[in-house]
Amino acid sequence: MDASHAHRHPVFCTVVPPHLLDKIAQSEDTRRADAAQRTLEQDSLLRTRRRVTTVRGIAPAPATPVSDEPRRTIYDVQHRTRLPGKKVRGEGGAASKDATVNRAYAGLGATYELFLKGFGRHSIDDSGLALDASVHYGEDYNNAFWDGQQMVFGDGDGDLFLDFTVSVDVIGHELTHGVTQYTANLEYHGQSGALNESMSDVFGSLIKQYSLDQTAEDADWLIGAGLLGPNVGGVALRSMKAPGTAYDDDELGKDPQPATMDGYVDTARDNGGVHINSGIPNHAFYLVATELGGKAWERAGRIWYDTLTGGELASDADFKDFARLSVAAAVARYGDGGAEHQALQKAWSTVGLG
Prior knowledge:
- This protein is an alpha+beta fold and 354 residues long.
- It has helices at 18-24, 30-53, 99-119, 168-182, 190-212, 270-273, 279-292, 300-309, 319-334, 339-350, and strands at residues 13-14, 72-76, 86-90, 131-137, 144-146, 151-154, 222-223, 238-239, 248-249, 253-254.
- The strands form 3 sheets. It has a 6-stranded mixed β-sheet with strand order 1-5-6-4-2-3, covered by helices on one side.
- The two termini are 27 Å apart.
């Protein structure tokens, strides 16, 4: 592993991008605007705190026997912001009367199971890292995030956004930021940042598909389906099948994701458009998975996992780097000229990265 991977610098990653919250903060509806503004302010504070503390890197975990069982703990912040909060459910403990607690617990388990059964990975760090999550964070907090050490879920405002534990792919998305942190450690800006976001969407979608036992053809390929309020014009936060179509709403604006490099967005906002341009590698994965058919985690997911964890993906990799290495990973695992190799070449060419 190269020197750039020697220290893990966790970033503060949220599932709802700042450009979307910025739009809501301009709403004429005072309650909606205030909730979005509070979320943005809290995110900014947490992002600054993470930037200050990450210069220390992540200390190696102590050597302990690795189990095939997860170690989950759920905490209730009780609408405050001091983490982790009060412990309300531990591994193997009885179900809570609080559905949010149970959804968080199940989502952590689904993520652990996909990485273990699908890729032989023991938790986020591959060394059995305990999975902690805090629920009921803040007041009307419209986000969920991985802070480098644990998951945190807001309840949403109950209007534009619902409880952030309702979508298992959102839970998987955020935990995958931890997997990326412990492997390729992709820098969170520009194309490497968009790849970081895309890795989380890819594996978040696979976690949902695995938990529902869906084929690539059966899957909806949406990130955050069920998260938007009933009066919002949209179906999810993002669509891997058709980037740019997930929502079109007076308050949220229109989904800005491109599906190909022809629509690539050059912007200084959102760390160089990490939540926007991630639509391009997202769409490439969708094309590969549906071209190969069957269970997407078995071949397409395996290629993406090999590329992310293989040690060749630099922390500042761009889209072309990932495309090249994914083709190499497909050849290494499945051989040259097979269906996997052809699907990769076709997909990357379709999105403009052939």
